[in-house]
Amino acid sequence: MSVSEPKGAAFQASADLRRGGGISRETTNAIIVFGLSILLILGSRFVSPALGSWSQVLTVLMLASFLIVLSFGQGLVILVGGLDLSIPAVITLGGVLATGWAGGGGDWYVLPAILAICGLVGAFNGFGVTVLKIPPFIMTMATSIILASAALGYTSGTPRGASPAAMTALMKTTWVGIPVVVYFVLLFVLAGWLLQSRTVFGRKLYAIGANDQAARVAGVAIGPVTTQAYVVSAICAGFVGMMLVGYANGATLRMGDNYLLPSIAAVVIGGSSILGGRGSFIGTVGGAVLLTTLGTVIAAIGLEQGWRTVIEGGIIVAALFFMREEFFARLRRPKRS
Amino acid sequence: MMNWKRIRRATMLCTTAAVALAGLVGSAHAEDKKFKIYLSLSYSGNAWQSEAANIVKALAATPPYDKQVELIEVISGTDPQAQISAYESMIEAGADGIVTFPISSTALNRVIKRGCEQGVKFFTYDATVTEPCAYNVSYITAGFGENSAQALVNELGGKGKIFLSRGVPGNSVDKRHTDGAMHIFKQYPGIEIAAEYYSYWDDRTTQQETAKALAAHPDVDGIWAQAGEYGAIQALQDAGTKLVPMTGENSNGFRLALANPDMQAKGLKGVSAGSPPAQSGYAFKLLMEILTGKRELEATNIEYPLPWVPAASVKLCEGETFENGCNAFPDGKVPSSFVTEVFNPELLPELSLLSALEGKPTPGATIQPLPAEIVKAPNEPGINCQNCEPPADLYKLTKIQPTVSP
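The joint structure predicted for all components is written out below.
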């Protein structure tokens, strides 16, 4: 096994995971990003004495919840070697429909119906990528443009209505002193991890991303499985739109714009390969938490906006440096010999 | 370099084609002497931008303008280059006037000058340009920053930890507001700026950035905010502690909160001021009066009055527009992000909620003449003029007096 063969390394890592023995690259990655987050939170006491507290942890988890749900979907698409640029537009779609159709009340089936519509958008993405063979980058960008224009036309620019009661309950209530959304995120992470790492569907995604020719020979239905990844991503994005509506009590047309790059960054910082076939959801969750913690701590430093962004970028580069292939190869070597 | 040129040419061709096509469709059913007027937006998508555009559309469809105007809307995005191309195409298509929200105060000057030379009248609203042949219609010189800062200082008794929730980094409007505010805050050594963050004039971003700042400074005493202020209130409520005095712009949610006795009891005080979407309607009517020969006016900078609504002055509207001195709408009638200052009983009596939300004319309304007098705006270098001197009393207070001495 040589470090100059990333595909081979990916197979080795996946094999480790399947055997369940040894510390896999994915696990080490997740431990590192979570460790960095905890260090940042503890270290932030030096920045401001009010930081490093339990309430800061809750703030971080609350703000990270959007990114965690989003990057699960984005992670699946990246896992099969794609990229979903339609996320901001689908967030807006979910938010605008939720306020428009279920603002304040609405029947119980309205929110699931909206998620189903978002799922159709994902299916459209998947259809374009797998059947029409349009590169994912272009296909999802086109979907994004179409959706954004449709939303502008539908709302005349001003989305009406307020947050559906269910989303207000999710985002604004607490249970035993902890926001309900934090419990939700824990359940979501568990379910997402099971789906990605412990189901046949998940294994097929890894197989397609690592080598689609081999996966085809092995009998994986490439088209339908890939499409399902886009569907899950769109449903996640639509749900984040609803969460944002519950958080801020209203929708706007550009509400998703700030989430595209962070959704990709969380996946990559979490140790997934941007080329597909490698990564774990737990790592991605760590990436999302790390990015959000970083934002909170940097916001507390009384620096000019320019410098804050420089520091934020610098820490991300440093984090990725420690997750390089060589670094892991060195960590693993003693175990192998 | 080659590539860039090619892209630019392609963009220009595309925009020209689109504008020409729009013109073709329009002229098919146009009557003989309609003025061709373009509404040029840089971007659309927040409540403020769409309300400003909607009221121009509504006015253009209100008699007698419906027979006199052919209005074509073009949205070019946040890139100055795209708006330059759009202006070029409008000039080529024979525009009589362009009502526009300019994305940059300087980047568009050259194409505007070229348009003026061909007889096109340029009216900017809210944001401004420094090209002297354009008419700037804006509240920006009316002192939002310094007046709201003084109001906050008064509420805080001259001391306390505050947050600054700013707009878009590098934008001339954000800079003008913040410079005005800092002029006041610097006079009070007891005022400590605990956190300063960019909220992009957006509720949701304001809420998240304020939540981050609150994690580090839960003991904040006040917030000075630009647009997006409703998000700051929600962040305070999420943190669950107390509310604090704050100033912000004109969202319906903020005005309702200021007038809410429960929130007042928790510590919310302050004033709602800032950018009114109604500027676009005023600019459009001025342009029309000039084109139809009802008004003689050389290109100049025109100041739109600063809305100023302290908590005690919030009054709910029972109908569909501002009447009897009301200035906010009941919960549920409009979204909380709705910018209330879309109406002006004196300058724009033709408008109703239908106009602001959907761009449709108010049934039965006809265009009323504007007051003859305009208010000239003072010079502000880099904002509405180049190589000019600002007045010595640039940051003088106009809406409020200090109640605490520094």
